[in-house]
Amino acid sequence: QPKRKAAFGSVGRRIPYRILHVISQDGESLGDMHRAEALRLMDERGLKLVLLRENVQPPVYRLMTGQQIHEEQLKRAEKKKASPKPGVVQKELSFSSAIAKNDLETKIKQVALWIEKKHHVKVTIRQAK
Fold first, then answer.
1. pTM here?
2. Of 24, 40, 51, 124, which residue is the least packed, with the fewest Cβ within 10 Å?
3. What Gene Ontology molecular function terms does this protein carry (predicted)?
4. What pLDDT does 117 receive?
5. Is there a domain that residue 5 lies in?
């Protein structure tokens, strides 16, 4: 069993499992096969083996080109950027467009306080009836 989770990318020839479930570069399943057979297939096609899921029996590997690996890494980086960071607090404030002046001033003070505290602030204005 591997001690640490590898980052997404080509795993090369170091595969800690004997039996693998291999998926072709087109996305079709090639079935379960021995590590040596998967490496032979990788060399024949000029592709790289990439670990997709290791928490299943047998672990799932996919044959990919360098370009496919790069695109998948970019996609995962975008998804990671889009997800909120654990230390960042996001505050949301919602009010009607028919809000009274003093209520608006109170909410502006609240937003200013949140910004000082380095919170992300989302303001939603609903149209009055």
1. 0.56
2. 124
3. ribosome binding; translation initiation factor activity
4. 86
5. no
